[in-house]
């Protein structure tokens, strides 16, 4: 009886080094890719890393936004409890 084993080996397909300003400084492609596929890889990394999702933020700005969000949560909790009280009184 013969068994067929498939081995999936993960490997590095390319390396891109990008400066803080968003400029590509070094590229190394370990697998053959068309120019369209390379452009797609650049675009995906740009959207993920440079478009703002992973950029550093000011600590003051983050603290201000967290405080604003906390106050919104507290207001929502108060509103929910007052609605619950009205429903409980109406049910009596």
UniProtKB/TrEMBL annotation:
InterPro entries for the chain: AP_complex_ssu, AP_mu_sigma_su, Longin-like_dom_sf
GO annotation, biological process: protein transport
UniProt signal peptide: 1-17
Principal location class: membrane
Localisation per UniProt entry: Endomembrane system
SUPFAM superfamilies (UniProt xref): SNARE-like (SSF64356)
GO cellular component, one term: endomembrane system
UniProt KW keywords: Membrane, Protein transport, Signal, Transport
Keyword Membrane: yes
S-adenosyl-L-methionine in keyword set: no
AP complex mu/sigma subunit domain mapped to chain residues: 11-41
Gene3D superfamilies noted in UniProt: 3.30.450.60
PANTHER family on file: ADAPTOR COMPLEXES SMALL SUBUNIT FAMILY (PTHR11753)
Family in the record: Belongs to the adaptor complexes small subunit family.
Protein name as it appears in the record: Associated protein 19
Organism per entry: Actinidia rufa
């Amino acid at each position: 009886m013969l068994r067929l084993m498939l081995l999936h080996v993960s490997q590095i397909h390319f390396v891109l080094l990008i400066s803080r300003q968003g400029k590509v400084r070094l590229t190394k492609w370990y697998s053959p890719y068309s120019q369209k596929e390379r452009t797609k890889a650049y675009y995906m990394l740009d959207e993920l890393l440079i478009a703002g999702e992973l950029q550093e933020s000011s600590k003051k700005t983050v603290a201000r936004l967290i405080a604003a969000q906390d106050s919104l949560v507290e207001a929502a909790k108060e509103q929910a409890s007052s609605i619950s009280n009205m429903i409980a009184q109406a049910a009596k």
